Amino acid sequence: MENQTTSYTLVLSGLSDLPSLQLPLFLVFLLVYLMTLTGNFLIVLLICTDSHLQTPMYFFLGTLACLDMGYSSVTTPRMLFDFHTQKRLITIQACITQIYFILFFALSEISLLAVMSYDRYVAICRPLHYTQIMHWKTCVLLVLGVLMVSVVYPLVHVLLLLKLRFCRLTPLQSFFCDLPQLLLVSCSDTFINVLLILIFAIFLGGGIFSLTFCPYIIILNTIMKMSKAMRSKAFSTCSSHLTVVFIFYGTLCFSYFHPNRKNHSAVDKVASVFYTVLTPLVNPLIYSVRNKIMKTSLKRAAFTISPF
After folding, report:
1. How would you class 249 by CB atoms within 10 Å of its CB: exposed for 0-12, middle for 13-18, buried for 19 or more?
2. Phi-psi region for residue 228, left (φ > 0), alpha (ψ -120 to 50) or beta?
3. What mean pLDDT is predicted for residues 237-243?
4. Quick count: other Cβ atoms within 10 Å of Cβ 128?
5. pLDDT at residue 215 is higher than 80
6. Alpha-carbon distance 249 to 265, whole Å?
7. How far apart are CA 58 and CA 86, in angstroms?
8. Where are the chain's structural domains?
9. How many CB atoms lie within 10 A of CB 219?
10. Phi, psi (deg, nearest 5) at residue 75
11. How far apart are CA 135 and CA 212, in angstroms?
């Protein structure tokens, strides 16, 4: 039997091993991170201060902006630290903690996108009953339900990870602690861990996916029966949400489910950058550029602040 020594420290491969790229990458991702925090915070501030934006739709959008700030903060500061030190070492405890919060924010975000799909369904397909169905108590309960499920789900994986031993020196092929890759460097039996990932992906992930896209089947059917003017307005209210959904699901699915996943190519790392770093930056841009009410609110706030 091979003598194996338990390791308490892991190595992250990072985005690049070239020393000459560490400073440029640090500056680029620092700028991206600051823009992400600024853009999402501005959306939250506008929604809290502008009475025109204090509706269920923008309440969910503000919650999404808060999640984006948290999601980006789980991975980007650690990546910036590794660019600065160029060591890329992380303890097992820190790695598992990062995995917990990545799972929490990722599940919270996709669940909230499903809730926002339901909100759009009620607004377009049942407009006369919108205020009765989507009153504030319902909105708060939906968000609390999303957060509660997102708190409990990662705990299952964390409790199982704490029982594993890690004794390989193989680096994690990423710039953050990724659950599947962490299981690959464990010297314990990970069958239960992998089985739970598959079960949750099929039932929980499949359920959320269905709740996100199924309402749009009814929405599209309803929109096609509208007049041209009303159809254009209805499409505009859904386009921003659908764009965010496709970007998040597209990069996530490509990163984890494409055929060459085991090769850990540079393309995998680029996809990881998209759904962990760039998506939280793009979301506020999409909602501010494609949303007329949000653009009007931004202009109103700019005129209020401007001394001229």
Report:
1. middle
2. alpha
3. 83
4. 6
5. yes
6. 20
7. 41
8. 9-305
9. 21
10. -105, -40
11. 20
- pTM for the full predicted model: 0.90
Burial of residue 163 (number of CB atoms within 10 Å: 0-12, 13-18, 19+): exposed
Q: Are 41 and 200 in contact (CB under 8 A)?
A: no
Within 8 A by CB and 6+ apart from 220, the residues are: none
- Nearest 5°: the CA angle 270, 271, 275 is 120
Tally Cβ neighbours within 10 Å of residue 220: 13
CA distance linking residue 281 with residue 279, whole number of Å: 5
Q: Token pair 């996530």 is at which residue?
A: 252
Chain center to CA of 129: 31
Task: Identify whether the C-beta of residue 106 lies closer than 8 Å to the C-beta of residue 178.
Answer: no
Kindly report the average pLDDT of the chain as a whole number. 86
Question: Which residue is listed with tokens 């607004």?
Answer: 123
Q: Which two tokens stand for residue 239?
A: 């386009």
9-305: CATH superfamily: Rhodopsin 7-helix transmembrane proteins (1.20.1070.10)
For residue 199 the two structure tokens come to: 């079960």
Structure tokens at 242: 């659908």
**What backbone torsions phi and psi does residue 168 show, to the nearest 5 degrees?**
-105, 150
pLDDT band, very low/low/confident/very high, at 230 (cuts 50, 70, 90):
confident
Structure tokens, 166: 């890690």
